[in-house]
Amino acid sequence: ENLARSEDLDLPPELQSFITETIPDEVGLTAEETVLAELRIQNVRKAARAFRAFDKRIDSLKHAKLRFEEKFPINSAQNRPSQVILAMRKIDTQIAEIESSTAELMQSNPEAYVVRNALELREYRKELKAGDFVLTPYAEKKIGELQDNYYAVDKIPFLNGETGSGKSSVAKYFCGEVLGVEPERIAGAKGIDETKIFGKIDLTSDENGPQARFVPGPLYRAMENGVPLIIEEVNAIPPEILKSLNDIIINAKKGEEVPIIGDPKGSKVKAKDGFGVIMTGNLNRNPKAIDRYKGL
Known about the structure:
- By secondary structure, the protein is α/β, with parallel strands linked by helices.
- The two termini are 50 Å apart.
- The protein has helices at residues 13-22, 31-71, 82-108, 112-130, 137-149, 167-179, 218-225, 239-253, and strands spanning 158-160, 184-187, 199-206, 209-216, 228-232, 257-259, 268-270, 276-281.
- The chain has a four-stranded parallel beta sheet, with helices on both faces. Strands 3-4 form a two-stranded antiparallel ribbon.
- The chain is built from eight helices and eight strands; from the N terminus they run αααααβαβββαβαβββ.
- α1 (13-22) packs antiparallel against α4, α2 (31-71) packs antiparallel against α3 and α2 (31-71) packs across α4 (112-130).
- β6 (257-259) and β7 form a beta hairpin.
C-alpha cells in the first residue's frame, strides 16, 4: 500500500511529516521492515478515524447539553425538571466514557499519541485564526467546572495557576460564550483601594450648588445588571478588603439585600438573576501563607 495514500485521510501537515520521516519508503526494505511499515500506517489510519468519530460524538453530546442549558438556564439547578437533570448527567457520563476510550486507544496504539496531538494542533490553528482563545482540554475542563459551580449559593469558583496560564481568558470565554454576557472585572493588586471595588463619591455642581453622588463600582454594577464579576489575582487584594468583599458576595448569592459600602445614604441592593463571581489567582508558593479560597 502506498504511503502517499495517507493523504486520503486529510491528515494535518504535522502528521504527514511524521509518516514521511519515521516510516521509510517501501523501496529497499526487507520483508520484515515492510510489514512493520504497513502496520504503522494502519495504526495511523485507525487512530485518525477513531479520534474523528470520538470528537464528532462528543461535539454532538455537548451541543445537546447546550440546548438543555439554553432552555433551562443554569441560574439554579432546582429550576430544572428532574428529567432534564438526569438527561444532562447521562450526557456527562457518555462524554466521560468516550474520553476513557480515547485514553485506552492512546495506550494500545503506538501511533495514536502522535495522531491525537497532530489533530489537536490543527484544531488549535483554526481557533487561533478565528480568534485569540484556544479551547484546549484544560480550558474545556475548567469551563465545565465553572458551569457546575457558577450559580452555587455556597461556592465562589476560583481558577488558580501561574501567571500566563490562561485563567482570565477561561473566565472571559465562559462569560461571553456560555453565559452570553459581558462581565464586570476587578484587577486585584496590593495597592488597590475600596473605591476600585465598591465605588466612590463623585462631586458635581448644578444650580443648587455642589452635589455629592455615589458612583457604583464593578461589584455593585454586576449586581444591578445581573452579570458576572471576574476578580483577577484575588490573592493580591489586602485581607481587610477581601473580608468585606467576601461577606457581601456570599450574602448576595443567597438572595439577600447587601449594604452599598461607601454610599453615604446607607443604600442597599439585591443582586439580579445572573449575578455571580469568578475569582482567579496565582498559586501560592509561600508555605506559611493561608489560602483564602480553594480552587475548583
